[in-house]
Design a protein that fits this description.
InterPro entries: Nitroreductase, Nitroreductase-like, Nitroreductase/BluB, SagB-type_dehydrogenase, ThcOx_dom2. With about 450 residues, the protein is of the alpha+beta class. The protein has 12 helices and 18 strands. The protein has 3 domains: about 60 residues, no CATH class; about 120 residues, Outer Surface Protein A, domain 3, CATH 3.90.930; about 200 residues, NADH Oxidase, CATH 3.40.109. The protein is globular. The structure holds flavin mononucleotide (FMN).
């Protein structure tokens, strides 16, 4: 807090300015280090509105957590750690007539010395401060009537349950809701998701979690880096060098020439013609066919054939292009309609396009933004309709096949590209208005014309 009323939040060498505030608001804000009741700034006074603005700015930057405590006890019952920038504790109303059950995506686990309650559907994580709350949560694996919980006098806090309901960790069952089992999770698009797949998807991407992501070297102090090449097995050895000739076919040469390109020539960007050729070579649907039912009475299933392999011939991957610099094609977001070999424009804000390109530039530690950023999204249901347990891993394997196809085609065409390992699934969901569990990003590839290396004379 500075003398002129400016408040800045600093964390390591990162800092954000939160605006200028009155002396009274600064005094009130000092309480934030120990706790400020939400109700204390809901009023209409100037002071309340100032504190409310400050608190919401802190929340948007992920700098707040919310403590739920019994007024009689000092001990935290629960501390809420937001996982998405929009999270704000809200209560979804429950009455004594309601029946609630835990979502099948909810899980309790030990984190350090704490017990945390999480769900890939929730915008926040709940740190459980009292074992009795964990016991009540365990009882909620079966539907429970609120009135019954009240009657049993379980350690029960309606406020907490309403927060959990808002976060979709608890579900309210209506009269037709059955026992809250798989198909009744409240969203038909979740039926096909296995628990571990949805957790993996949200925990291995950015946007729906607040944990550090990417090259963090978390345990570098404790564990040395494994070597680049595996130490040999001690068994007898057949030296292959005398059997294999130096690779010389055009394909072998292409494989040897392939490399990642992160620096693009923005004076000579990739052209629409080249992009069309690239997509035709790598991703176009070449033919469509129908397969007989997999089981008696099962439905007929439609298939397509494309240039890369795909598990179960599912071809669940879709391409979304964030175009920043392509000759003949306006800046914007496009879906590649692989069936009819066409680009379809999707309205996205300039700010969102910029955020996506800048994130890709950051991930590549590149001097500029990619000319075209290809986001590979999966239609999750297309593959999980058939496969359980391995569905998500198959999707990631398909992405690998596609990325190598992109690399080789780009090399063949004299273009350059680079795979990108981190993706923000929340930003993509906002850009496309597609919910994160229906169709979402699983890979990215930056495409462009690489800068020619200057050969010293
Ligand atoms: C799945 C995958 C993810 C990758 N993610 C990134 C990334 O986020 N940033 C980056 O600069 N390079 C990324 N790369 C590129 C690798 O760093 C690169 O392939 C590797 O260093 C070998 O170099 P080469 O491709 O030039 O042969 C990724 C590659 C793959 C296959």
């Amino acid at each position: 807090m500075q003398a002129d009323g400016n408040i800045t939040a600093s964390l390591g060498d990162y800092s954000v300015s939160l605006g200028q505030f009155s002396g009274a608001a600064m005094d009130r804000a000092r309480n934030l280090s120990t706790g400020l009741p939400l109700a204390s700034f809901t009023g209409k006074s100037l002071l309340a509105r100032e504190v409310d603005a400050l608190v919401h700015r802190l929340a948007r930057h992920g700098l707040l957590e919310y403590r739920l405590a019994s007024s009689r006890e000092e001990q935290d019952l629960v501390v809420i750690e937001p996982q998405v920038p929009e999270y704000w504790p809200r209560r979804a109303k429950l009455s004594s007539r309601d029946t609630v059950v835990l979502s099948r995506f909810a899980h309790l686990r030990r984190r350090g010395n704490e017990m945390v309650l999480e769900s890939p559907r929730a915008g926040a994580l709940f740190r459980i401060g009292h074992p009795a709350i964990a016991a009540t949560l365990a009882a909620l694996s079966q539907p429970q009537k609120i009135s019954e919980l009240n009657r049993q006098g379980a350690t029960f806090n309606l406020y907490l349950f309403e927060l959990l309901l808002d976060s979709q960790i608890l579900l309210k069952l209506d009269a037709k809701g059955g026992q809250g089992l798989r198909v009744n999770e409240g969203d038909g698009n979740l039926v096909l998701w296995d628990f571990h797949d949805l957790v993996f998807h949200t925990r291995s991407t950015e946007g729906r979690q607040a944990n550090p992501v990417g090259a963090t070297f978390t345990y570098a102090d404790a564990v040395p880096p494994p070597p680049a090449v595996r130490p040999s097995w001690p068994g007898s050895r057949i030296d292959l060098r005398k059997f294999s000739a130096e690779p010389s076919s055009p394909f072998a040469t292409l494989l040897r020439e392939r490399h990642s390109t992160r620096d693009f020539d923005d004076k000579h960007p990739v052209t629409l013609g080249e992009l069309a050729q690239f997509l035709d070579t790598t991703a176009r649907v070449m033919s469509e066919w129908k397969g007989g039912p997999y089981f008696d009475g099962g439905p007929e299933v439609t298939y397509g054939t494309r240039p890369y392999p795909s598990a179960g011939s599912a071809y669940e991957l879709e391409l979304y292009l964030t175009v920043s610099n392509c000759e003949g094609l306006a800046r914007g977001l496009y879906h590649y309609d692989a069936g009819s070999h066409a680009l379809v424009a999707i309205t996205a804000s300039a700010q969102q396009l910029q955020a996506q390109s800048v994130a890709a530039q950051f991930a590549m530690d590149a001097p500029g933004q990619p000319q075209i950023l290809i986001t590979i999204a999966a239609r999750f249901g297309r593959i999980s309709w058939k496969y359980s347990s391995i569905a998500y891993s198959l999707i990631l394997k398909d992405v690998g096949c596609m990325i190598q196809t992109f690399y080789l085609a780009a090399t063949d065409m004299g273009l350059g590209g680079c795979a990108i390992g981190s993706i923000n699934i929340d930003l993509f969901a906002k850009m496309t208005a597609l919910e994160f569990h229906i169709e979402g990003p699983v890979g990215q590839f930056a495409l462009g014309r690489g800068k020619k290396l200057e050969v010293p004379s």
